Amino acid sequence: xxxxxGKAEQSEAEATLxxxxxxxxxxxxxxxxxxxxxxxxxxxxxxxxxERGGMAAGARLRIAAAAVLALAVVxxxxxxxxxxxxxxEARTAPAVARPAMQSxxxxxxxxxxxxxxxxxxxxxxxxTEKKTPAARHGKTVKQDKDATHAGH
Amino acid sequence: xxxxxxxxxxxxxxxxxDVPEQECAQGSDAAVxxxxxxxxxxxxxxxxxxLRNAADAEDAVQEAFIRVLRxxxxxxxVRDHRVWLIRIVWNVVLDRKRRVKCxxxxxxxxxxxxxxxxxGLSAEEIASAAEHHARVLACVEQLPAKEREVLHxxxxxxxxxxxxxxxxxxxxxxxxxxxFRARNLMAELLNHKRSVR
Lengths: 152, 197
Fold this sequence. Notes:
The complex is a heterodimer of chains A (152) and B (197).
Chain A: H1 7-21, H2 29-39, H3 57-83, H4 133-136, H5 141-151
Chain B: H1 3-9, H2 14-51, H3 54-70, H4 81-99, H5 109-115, H6 123-142, H7 145-154, H8 161-168, H9 172-196
């Protein structure tokens, strides 16, 4: 305890509190209390607990309401699921599995191009072939060249 | 169904049970009325010392007696009615104080001057005394709750330290140590206030 603080301060505080504590009660307090007690409900206002054996009407109503809500949610979900059309199946042919090569180079993942396209077939014409001048004279191109060099 | 079967099945003895219960209720009502006569004033003073508002204090006492009325069946089990009632009103008062923080206590000097005794004092002296008490009470409010509660209850001369311990639900040694701390703190607060002025 701080030595500078004497008993005077302590008693000063307690004197005030004692003064307050000793104040007389107002007149007619007991009579007012009794009147208030007569007007007050004797039993505590507690929430009623549901009966042990049966079920209260309110509880039944709550359960029914909960069931209706659950049905609405489930029905709505099912309706939405049915309304959305399922995506069509992709028409794809499975790739033919090729046997792995025993040795040598690998294909490096390259796939063989399927022979789906048939190239255009050239019409077969019998004697449309142009004859070269050499051929016309019964000489080959080489013979023509030799003859040219010889002339020089 | 014969009379004996009816008695065993339980529906014939309703009247026999009702009468003692009614008498018991009337008896306990009378007991509560007697408690009101005897302790209403004490409970009011306890409530007023904390709330410092006449209407609030009266409401607190009323609420305490209503609680007693609701649990009147247990009146016979109570050993010391005075301490039991003070404990009830004390809890009511603390509840109210916690709930109604915004409502100012009657700390204003004029209200204290009106309430406090003024035998043979001039108007100036009354005002000065009220101001002093208001200052002291403001210091009391600055104390920690535990110390403040013990200090409040110790002001009631009719309450021993054992009874204060019973009201607060603590041991007697705790009451003493808290009271010691409260007195020292109060003295420091008052001394500090004086030095500041």
